[in-house]
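Dear Dr. H.,

I hope your travels went smoothly. While you were away I took the liberty of generating a structure for the chain from your last submission, since the lab meeting agenda had it listed for discussion. I wanted you to have the full record in hand beforehand rather than looking at slides cold. The sequence, exactly as received, is reproduced here:
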Amino acid sequence: MKVFLFLFSIFTFSAGTAHAANPQDVQASMQQMQQAQAKLMQAMMLEKPSKYGFEETVDALQKTAQARGWKIAGVFDAQEMMRKAGHADAKPMKIVGMCHPTLAEAVLKAQQQAQTPPSLTCRYSVFEGKDGKIYVMRFNTSLMAQMSQGGISAALTNLAKEEEAVMSSVLK
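The corresponding predicted structure, in token form, is as follows:
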């Protein structure tokens, strides 16, 4: 919650100064706001190196998740799609759709009870970085839980703990 409040205060301060009189001040304020938004987006994502190769990471994620009761919705080969779109130098990237049904249902029910729009992050990206290392990227469910209240926070916290258990099988 502290991270969110810090980033929100930066964003709010930046937005509040956008009413400056001269164009240079407006431009500087807009730059500050963009930087604050970029920091918030960066905090919303977790990107960690894998201890395995590319295919081994994808396979280990799926096997660990299934062993813990998760359902695999599918694997999307983003590299293949990029190559078909003309990007011959696209690096390996797969997006694994997977969720724990019980925990996902708890999050969605809590959101429904709170009358908030449903949002569930059941996608995990495995990709080769510019440095040649393999990474896993996902939404920061723990941060989302801290930014939420009541039943939503509790449900997201439980999901975050389960995600960590699955991710621990592949992350360094």
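Two observations you may find useful: The longest strand covers residues 71-77. Residues 50-167 form a domain with the TATA-Binding Protein fold (CATH 3.30.310.70).

With kind regards,
E. W.
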